[in-house]
Design goal:
The protein is α+β, with helices and mostly antiparallel strands. About 20% of the residues lie in helices and about 25% in strands. It is extended.
Length: about 280
């Protein structure tokens, strides 16, 4: 089955407009999920909505939304009334501005979506907008309404399509100074820094998400399989504590040497070993 669009509307750049579709770029469906069950009967449990005053179970048809005006006093808002809150971004992603891709603070990135043109007629305008951003290496900033909320969305070229990433508002991102202010200013020696840099160099790599495996998920699946087969599940014994290395230089030297015990020196401090002449047999 073809994936279902999460949102449909229009993409607009000045007077250029084209219909588009948004699709969720990520999924949690492949992960192992558990249901709540009755441990005595093995039957699945179902959650019910209960009126906090009467204690009676409320039918789904009577479930609605309410905004608390005062303690225990609510104003009821139904779906039709929410639909009346229409602003331009409800149906149109209007690009307000363009910023360098590197200028977007990663803390503001929220959820990614794939954006595609809705129909062949829309393809030409879509490609013009996509390629203009690609040539300038810039991301477009726009607004979009999804799930009864307005979001800022960053648009950038991705292959033949456009990647749209919703952004958090400034009030949602905590000020790092609240957490970093107590970190002391410590001067480290040149040798210490060179050792750390050497470790970074030996572990240099390109980002490839395929290299990362969810070890916990794999172990969880094995546990479920073993339990379903009637096998006893026991917690593994913890490895013995090898002792903490308190001295920073000693910890870095051990890291450079590696598990095999091979000694290594930072590039700037490597000494050439004297060459030995080979005697003819």
């Amino acid at each position: 089955m073809a994936p279902r669009a999460y949102w449909k509307g229009y993409l607009r750049l000045s007077l250029v407009t084209c219909p588009i579709e948004l699709f969720a770029a990520t999924s949690q469906s492949e992960k192992t999920h558990f249901h709540q069950i009755n441990t005595q009967t093995g039957h699945r449990l179902r959650q019910q909505m209960v009126d906090e005053e009467t204690g009676k179970v409320v039918d789904k048809t009577h479930k609605g939304r309410g905004y608390e005006l005062a303690k225990g006093r609510y104003v009821q808002i139904d779906e039709e009334e929410l639909a009346a809150v229409e602003i331009e971004s409800t149906h149109t992603v209007d690009i307000d501005s363009f910023v360098p891709l590197a200028a977007i603070d990663k803390r503001y990135l929220d959820k990614p979506y794939y954006i595609v043109p809705d129909g062949k007629v829309a393809a030409e305008a879509f490609i013009v907008i996509r390629d203009a951003m690609k040539d300038k290496n810039r991301a477009g900033l726009a607004r979009i309404v999804m799930a009864n909320r307005e979001h800022i969305i960053a648009l950038e070229p991705l292959g033949k399509g456009i990647l749209g990433t919703t952004l958090r508002y400034d009030y949602e991102v905590r000020d790092e100074r609240r957490y970093f202010s107590e970190i002391p200013n410590v001067r480290v020696s040149k040798e210490t820094l060179e050792l750390a840099e050497h470790i970074l160099d030996t572990k240099a790599s390109d980002f490839d998400p395929k290299k990362f495996t969810d070890e916990y998920e794999l172990a969880l699946r094995k546990l479920v399989k073993r339990k379903a087969a009637g096998k006893k599940i026991e917690a593994p014994e913890h490895a013995e504590d090898r002792g903490k290395v308190i001295d920073l230089m000693e910890a870095l030297r051990r890291s450079v040497q590696g598990d095999r015990g091979h000694k290594a020196r930072p590039r700037g401090n490597r000494r050439k070993k004297p060459t030995r002449s080979r005697k003819a047999a």
